[in-house]
Amino acid sequence: MDYSIKIGGEAGQGIQTVGDTLSRVFARSGYHVFTHQDYESRVRGGHNFYQVRVSDRRVSASRSKIDILVAFDTESIELHAAELSDQGQIIYDSATLKGKHAGPQFLDIPFRALAVEHGGSSIMANTVATGAILGMLGMEMDLLLHIIRKTFHKKGEEIIGQNTSAAMAGFDVAVKQCLKCSFSASERTEPKMLIAGVDAVGLGAVASGCKFYAAYPMTPSTGIMNYLAGKEKEFGIVVEQAEDEIAAINMTLGASFAGVRAMTASSGGGFALMVEGLSLAGITETPIVIGLAQRPGPATGLPTRTEQGELQFLISAGHGEFPRVIFAPGDPEQAVHLTHRAFDLAEKYQIPACIVFDQYLGDTQWTYREIDLKKLVNIDYRLRADALKDVAVYKRYAYAENGISPLAVPGDSKHLVVADSDEHDEEGHIIEDAETRNRMVLKRLYQKIPQIRQEINPPLRYGAEVPDVVLIGWGSTYGIMREAVDVLSATRAVALLHFSELWPFPGVDAFDYISFLKNAGKTICIEQNATGQFARLMKAETGFEISSGVYRFDGRPFTVEALLGEIHACLG
User: Fold this and answer.
1) In the Cβ-directed half-sphere of 96, how many Cα atoms lie within 13 Å?
2) Edge-to-edge strand order for the sheet containing 238-241?
C-alpha cells in the first residue's frame, strides 16, 4: 500500500482540516504517513493544497503521482488532473464547482448538500469529504468518529452528532458510487505518533528545560511559539510575543542572563534584525538558542514557500568574531535531538546556538513509533548559590585554561555578576588596553573552538558501503535523498551523506567522509538554493569539490520522481 492524496482548493475551504484529520486517522491506524503543504500568503482565496502520503512502509517524501484528488475548486482539477496515477480518482462537488466533468476518473459527491442534509450546515462539507476518502480506501470509520468526538467535545453532543452524521454520509456515498476504486488499505498495526518538524523543535526545547521564549510571529517560525504557548502551564514556560525581533532577542538574552534556558526564533528577515543581539550574545558569552526558519528571499520573497538560502548568512552573521554552533535537522526526530544539543552546547560553552530549518521541514508531518526522550539529559552548567558559597572572589570572565569562565546567576549568591557589551576585563568592567583585548579574544574564540569542534558529529551515511554515486545534502533534503537512494540502489551502488551538524564544519576523525567521497565516481549535491551554498562551504572548509549539483529555488520542494529525473540527468 502506497497512496497519495491531494486536497486542493482556496484558503478558507478547510483544506488543512481535511489533511490533518486524514493524517491522524492514518497514523492511529498504524500506517506510515508523510505530508506537505503548498499555500499562498493570503487568508482567503488563491490556490492551496495539502498532500498526504500513506503507506505500509516507511516514507519520507512526497510522490508526483496522485491516487485521490479532492477538488474543492475548479483550479484544482485544471492544475492537478494530469498528476493522477493510472488508478487515480478525482472527487468533487459539481454543484459547488458549477459544472460536471465526464470520465471514469471523476466521482461527483455533493459535499455541501450532504453537509446541509446530515449535518445541518454547509460548513461541514470538509467533514463529508474526509468520510468519503476513507470510504474510497475501504477503511473503517471508528478512528475518524473518535477524532470528531475529541475535537468537538467542548461544543456538545449536538455538534458531535452533526459532524458524525456528515462524515458517515460522505463515507456511504463513496462506498456506493466508487465502484471503480481499486484502493485497499492494509491491515491496521500499532498506532504511530504524528509530528511536524516545527513542533519537533518545540518539543526539543521543552525537553531541554527551556523556560523562556520570545518571538515576533513570522512564517514559518511561528509554529514554535504556538507549540510552546500550549505548554506554558504544564512546564512553567514564559512565552512572550515581542513587538519586533530586536526586542525578542534582547528579551531572550535577558532571560538567559537571569539564569534560565531561553530561546527565540524567526525567519530570514526577522533574523536580520536580530544580528546585533547575536553579537551581544557573543561578547557577553550569554547562552541562547535561535531558530532560523528559512523561506525564499530576498526581502519578503515568497513568505509561505521553502528554500535553503540562508546558510552562508547564518555562518557569517554578526559583527566581530565569536564562536557559534549551527544545526540543521533533516526530520522531526533529528529536530528534537538537535534542539536539545543546541541548548546543551550553548550553555556549556556560553555561546549562541542555532537551529536552521525551512518551511518544508517545518510543515511536513512524519510518523514514528516513538521518539526516545530518555537520551536527553539536561546538565545545569551554571553556578548556583551552593556552588559559590565557598568562593571568595567571583570573576564572570575569568581567564580559564579551557576558555570557559564561571557562569553565575545574578542575585543567587553574595557575588556581583557584571556583564558589558564593550570589551571588558575578567570582572566584566570596560577596558581599552590591547593586552586585555587580545586575551579576551583568545579566550572567547581560540580556546573554545577546538573543544566545540570535537562535539560536532560527522554526516549520516546511508546506502552502499562502497558507492559509485554519492548524494550530498543538508537539512530538509534528507528524506527525499533517502527515498532516491532506495530507488536507485536497485540498479547501482548509491549512498547519501546528510549533514545536520554544520558549524563548526565536521572533522574527519570519527568518519573520513572526504576519502569516502573521493572514492566515488560521481558526487551530487542536492540543495534548495540557487548558488549551491553547502557545496561552496564544503570546498572552502575541506578543499573537496563536489562534481555536480541539483539546485531548486522556485520555492517548491522536490518530489521523489522529480529528484530522480534530475539525478539521472547528472549521471548522463
Assistant:
1) 24
2) 238-241, 210-215, 261-267, 288-294, 352-358, 325-327, 501-503
Rounded CA separation 145/161 (Å): 10
Beta strand segments in 197-296, E: 210-215, 238-241, 261-267, 288-294
Nearest to 481 by CA among 539, 532, 557, 367: 557
Residue 547 contacts residue 522 (beta carbons within 8 Å): yes
Q: Nearest CA to 110 among 177, 164, 179?
A: 177
CB neighbour list of residue 529: distance below 8 Å, 6 or more residues apart: 307, 308, 309, 311, 551, 553
C-alpha cell at 562: 522529480
Q: Are the beta carbons of 11 and 39 closer than 8 angstroms?
A: yes
Cα 287 from Cα 76, distance rounded (Å): 48
Specify whether the CB–CB gap between 17 and 70 falls below 8 A.
no
220 by Cβ neighbours in 10 Å (0-12 / 13-18 / 19+) ranks as buried
- Measuring CA to CA, which residue among 141, 126, 2 is closest to residue 59? 2
Cα separation, 122 vs 257, in Å, equals 53
pLDDT in tens, 197-245: 999 999 999 999 999 999 999 999 999 999 999 999 999 999 999 999 9
Q: Which domains occur in the chain, in start order?
A: 2-177 (3.40.920.10), 196-368 (3.40.50.970), 382-455 (no CATH), 456-571 (3.40.50.920)
With contact defined as beta carbons under 8 Å apart, do 303 and 252 qualify? no
Q: Which residues pair with 325 in a beta bridge?
A: 353
CA angle 508, 453, 500 (to 5 degrees): 70
What gap in Å lies between CA 57 and CA 63, rounded to an integer?
Answer: 14
SS (H, E, C) 47-95: EEEEEEEEECCCCCCCCCCEEEEEECCHHHHHHHHHHEEEEEEEEECHH
Question: What H or E segment, with its residue span, contains residue 501?
Answer: strand 501-503
Q: Which helix (H) or strand (E) holds 518?
A: helix 513-518
CA 553 → CA 291, 308, 550, distances in Å? 22, 8, 10
Instruction: Say what the pLDDT of residue 11 is.
Output: 85
Give the type of residue at 305: R
Largest CA distance in the chain: 87
Can you tell me the distance from the alpha carbon of 453 to that of 457, in angstroms, rounded to the nearest whole number?
Answer: 9
Rounded to whole angstroms, the Cα distance separating 185 from 29 reads: 10
pTM here is 0.95
Half-sphere CA count of 505, side-chain side, radius 13 A: 17
What is the grid cell recorded at 535?
557545496
In sequence order, what are the residues at sequence separation of 6 or more whose Cβ sits closer than 8 angstroms to the Cβ of residue 420?
Answer: 284, 428, 429, 430
Task: Give the C-alpha separation, 415 to 66, whole Å.
Answer: 65
Which position has the grid cell 492537478? 80
**Is residue 548 classed as helix, strand or coil in its secondary structure?**
strand
pLDDT for 8-23, tens place per residue? Answer: 999 888 899 999 999 9
Q: Among all chains, which residue has been given the C-alpha cell 530586536?
A: 246
Alpha-carbon torsion (288, 294, 299, 305), positive or negative = negative
Q: Is the pLDDT of residue 42 over 90?
A: no
